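Why show two proteins at once? Because comparison is the fastest way to build intuition. When a single record is shown, students tend to memorize it. When two are placed side by side, the eye starts asking what differs. So, the first record is below.
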Amino acid sequence: MNRLYTRNQKNNRNNFLRDSDNRFKLSDMILEASMDAFLVVDLEGEILEVNEVCVNLLDYSPSEIIDMNIKDLNICRSQEEIKEYLNQIRAKGIDRFETQCSLKNGEVKELEISAIFIDNFEVPIVNIFIRDITQRKHRQYQLEKAYQENKEFLDELRKQNNRINTILQTSMDAFWVMNTDGDILETNEAFLNLFGYSLLEIMNMNINQLDVSKSKDQLKEKLKEIQRKGRDRFESKYQLKNGEIRDLEISVTYVDCLDQSICLEEAIFEVFARDVTERKQKEEELRRTQKQLIRSEKMAALGRLVAGVAHEINTPIGIGVTAISHLVEKTEEIIKLYNENKMKRRDLENFFKSTMETAKITLRNLNNASELTNNFKQFAADQTDNQRRKFKMKYLLNEIMISLKPKFKNTKHDVVIYCDEDIEITSYPGAISQIITNLTLNSLIHGFEEQKKGKIKIEVVEEEDLIKIIYSDNGKGISEENMDKIFEPFFTTKRGRGGTGLGLNIIYNLINNFLGGEIECNSKLASYTEFIIKLPKKSKISNN
């Protein structure tokens, strides 16, 4: 039986609990009835008596507890509130509630209280049974929290599913789900509208009945490949119910049934498809237009070069004709003197001297014309032939600059080439010639527009499997707002003044689409413009 601990010094109104038979009767009744903590308080909240379970629960010594008021334990109510509450218990006779209690070590316990008012003695008292429900409350909190979290998760999952279904059904892209054998399991409205089948028809179909770009075996291998990769994006041709063939851009995701985050009965493929037939047609039309523009620009550039070279060739030929004409006159004069027997030694010496000078002038100018003709012949052949061959970069650059010599006539602009003699490339010299020619003309027309003396620098370096060409000029540069537009077709700052806006666009297409390289531009206004071109040392054979 539990021992009861009693306050040793209380006022006379409590002496009956220590000395009378009532104390023993009360103690026996309480201790036999409950295994819970128990204490007795008066209507002021003074603790009169406690049992051992209460001492162990509150972690105070018996003497400490007996000297305390109930307010010293309860952290929820003030002394006035406790006194008022005890009076309410007195009025009601009995009450049960939950509260919190602070232990000696500061720990807070959740308690269930059962209070009984007793007025059978000289002093009214309240018997209080206390049960520790801290663990129960904690478990209850955890359960409520788990329930709330699960409820929120389920609500969110339900919302997500509704949102996903809404998105899929309102999506403009066709969507379907199929198993690993290619059987179609589910579709959206856009899929049915695209293919023209009813839902009942499509549910009995396999993807190999729609994809006409691959055989059954190829489709099977493709699905296995997507399984290994997890996802894929590609283009393919699909046949509609009316027999029409459409180009579709396909995005596929593989979802494994073993995925712990997704509950599936079997592995599936989720597929989005976008009809890109019209886009492909427009791209093809654009490619044809670009090729026509490139050919037109090539011929126009070649025409300009022919005119320039013709003018340049006319100069040495004209000098040669003049020199020969002069020689003919001198020859006729010496013949006349000879026939008339008037020729003197001095006349013959002067004739020989004039003949030698005239011959040298003629030979020199004819050689210049011959060199220009040969260089232009090779350059023109490269421009029109577009044959892939192996060549030395420095030789090609020198050829280009010779062909552009007429453009630099009557200017003080300089061209400097830094290129090792041994740098070779297997590519299309015509395309590279057109690129360098367009860049050079761009510098002359735009970069040096307001500049009397400019400098063009062309540097070629090797980088593993690449050839890097760095073309730069110290012209007026390109403004920041125009930098993003320079490669766009028909963009020019000289609209109405002879600018077509195709030069840099043709360069971009030649480098990226024809030669398999890349180009970038750096520029600073009123300072410089630099183009960095990277080309493969061995260009692939182009189908263009």
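Second record. Ask yourself what differs from the first in the token line.
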Amino acid sequence: MPVTDRPAADLMTDVVIVGSTPGALCAAIACRQAGLEVLVAEPSGQLGGIAATRGGRLWLPGRDGPTADDYASARDYFDRVVGDFEPCSSAPRRHAFLTGTAGLASWLASLGVDLEPDSAGDAYPDIPGALASGRVLRPALVETTAIGRLVEFLPAGGGSGTDGVLDKLEHGARRVGEFALGRRWGGGAVALESALLAVCQRLQVNIWWQAPVRRLVVTSTGNDFETAERVAGVVVDRGGRTVRVLAGRGVVLAEGGFEADAALRREFLPRPSRPDWTIGLPSRAGADQLEWAGELGLGLAGMGYAWWRPGLWAPGVPVQDAGRSLAVPHGFVVDSTGRRFVNEACAGVDFCRALYARFNDLGPQMSAWLIVDSDHRRRYPLGDVEPGRLPRAAEKSGFVTTASTLPELAWKIKVDASGLQATAGRFERHAADGNDEDFQRGAGTADRARGDRKARPNPCLGAVSKPPFYAVRVVPADLGTKGGLLTDEFSRVLRADGGPMPGLWAIGSAASSVAGPADPAPGVGLAEAMVAGRAAAASIAASAW
């Protein structure tokens, strides 16, 4: 339960930020620039949280640059993709996000945080207002050892965030030099986190790690006729002791998500749903926040949404991002009837919607399978399994099933054999024509970008006909949940009655996403968190006790 009386403080500061994600650090830096004292409390021993293990892409429309872009076109695209307004994606929240992206880019540049163009474009480049390139940026490589001891608390082996051959060669060359010079370089979200931590060091932001927040400190003010509650701090486990930290200006919750909590997944997300279908390290930080929400009467939104991605999975094997495995030639996805049901090259959220629709039609015991032949195996990865000879461990673990014929493969994975053979025959004819008559795979710009551009006549189509054949189970995986505390355009947490909860702000995965059920482009979630972090800092600076 929240503490309802002002306790004796072990520490007093202006602002406490729970979490150390890039969004959290943006809030911390902006608060320091406003002259406020800040404590960042990271619950785990890894700075950056789950966000620091990913690519670090940022969707930042509306910036000045070589590609014509403005707020109006970005808003047109965003509204078309996200759809109807709802509490988590209200008009004020959309406006605040899309007017904050350009400012975030220039602010990061002023801090010395370098970003560079990424090859990715909007997820739906054929929709009005979309751009095939120019809106997505990635962090430039940085020397992470520049932040001193803090480098020990960054995730090991963070993604480089590089796509091009020259980028990868440069990244590899720098890594070779690490050992000789005693220096360490990072890309992707590690680079972003490291660059922001360097700014925090310059501005003297106080950072704790392995400091989980156990509850909020809530004070009551007023008289016998009317009382009001305010979040006034947190109770933290720090070095084996309980520390009460009072925050004179406010508390910012910057990490959430309930993807690791099986019970909450069953309650809120579509079924079937499993914690081990989360790609990466699942979080349950949001579970505590849901308890606090119930106790304080806080609003929630977007609880049925997640950052959906098709995943390759077998029991006991970590789920892997299907990535390009589905979009490239010489493979297709079937259900238990042996028939295709979706354009395999579509956006991840759309694929998972189709997969859940199939669960609704055939029942939750239905299974979906990626079927590929030896041409696919020779050229393309299966999740983390590199092209070429199949490792024994992949088959022994049950992750990949192999067979000499399609009927044998169907028998092994319990799929209708006649349906699978008919699908393979029809798909071969489509591949020869370069036209998927059933689901238009490879017809759109985004499809072709996800496929193999060297393949002709369609970069996403190729017959599945050369033995041996391989099957991997496909599940509706996610990068985390999108639901959480409902906030306004200033990142203030709203109560169930619609008013703001004094002293409490939420950003990133602690708050419901402005993207609602959609995923408009790579880097929307991270950009949203960082824009919201700056908005929270501005709101805190303008508030009074």
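One difference worth noting in the second protein: The chain has 14 helices and 21 strands.
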